[in-house]
Amino acid sequence: MIIINADDFGCDAEVNDAVLQCFRDGLCSSTTLMANMPAFEEACDLVHQEKLGNHVGLHLVLRDGFPLTEPLKKVPAFCDSTGRLSVLRVRPVLSLSGEEKRALAGEIRAQISRCRRLGVPLTHVDSHYHMHTNFTIASVLVDVMREQGLSHLRISRNCGPGIPKAKSLYKGAFNRWLGWKKVAATRYFGSITDFLYLTERNSHAISQNDAIEIAIHPMLNEGSEVVDRDTQCGVVEAVKKIAEYRQAVSFAGYRYG
């Protein structure tokens, strides 16, 4: 099973246009919403207009923009002196006090709630800049997800080139922990280029029974073609290659593990 998720829905009007184009052209099977960004409400309107409710999750934002809750603005681990989200820009989040955990949990709930208030039920969770792959943050997030009835959380990138051994060990431990917590969304996660690298080197690297999530960050170039912002890869041709392996699906009604 393959899920192609378009990240950053709601970031701005241009990203919204690109994500919508991906759905219309069959280039993605799900997307994740940024509840604190300027084009969030427009994105929710598009979800309803295009009947995409079963294809949308939460793109938890803990870096960029401002939090939805006042308590988190006062936590230096997450926000700067202006109250702007800046996690990991100030210092690594290695531990949190009880009060800081409660502030983080409140912000996560607020971002989930804002999506649901606008009629988007949410099918899964990932995060901006992969902030949720920090164990300290993930431990709070997983508890809130369970409380909120959400069971699919993106694992840490574990395929493709360029993963140092130390990071690979951390990622492996983190992903096993998600599996133990029964919230691991898939067995593999990476970018378009990660997936193509893996399959081109070994066409049997991923079996038909393996679940994989591929993240794209769609944008429209000057020719109105959809490209991936991070890899500059042409999404149309890449998805054609991915489709040779299997059809992309959404998280709705899906259970892994």
Outline the structure in words:
By secondary structure, this protein is an alpha/beta fold. The chain has a single domain (2-62, 120-243), classed as TIM Barrel. Helices cover 37% and strands 14% of the residues. It is built from eight helices and eight strands. The chain has helices at residues 13-24, 40-49, 70-73, 98-117, 135-148, 165-180, 192-201, 235-243; strands at residues 2-9, 30-33, 56-60, 125-127, 188-191, 212-216, 218-220, 226-228. The strands form two sheets. Strands 4-3-2-1-6-5 form a six-stranded parallel beta sheet. Strands 7-8 form a two-stranded antiparallel sheet. Helix 7 (192-201) packs across helix 8 (235-243). The longest helix has 20 residues, at 98-117.
Class computed from helices, strands and strand pairing? alpha/beta
Tell me the total number of β-strands: 8
How many discrete structural domains? 1
Order of helices and strands: EHEHEHHEHHEHEEEH
Largest sheet: 6 strands, parallel
Number of helices: 8
| Spatial extent as radius of gyration | 18 Å
Question: What helical percentage do the residues reach?
Answer: 25-40%
* Poorly predicted ranges: none
Between the first and last Cα atoms, what is the distance in angstroms?
A: 13 Å
- Tell me what the CATH architecture is: Alpha-Beta Barrel
- So, the CATH homologous superfamily? Glycoside hydrolase/deacetylase
What percent of residues are in strands?
5-15%
Mean pLDDT: 90
CATH class: Alpha Beta
Largest sheet, spatial ordering of strands: 4-3-2-1-6-5
| Shape summary | globular
CATH topology annotation: TIM Barrel
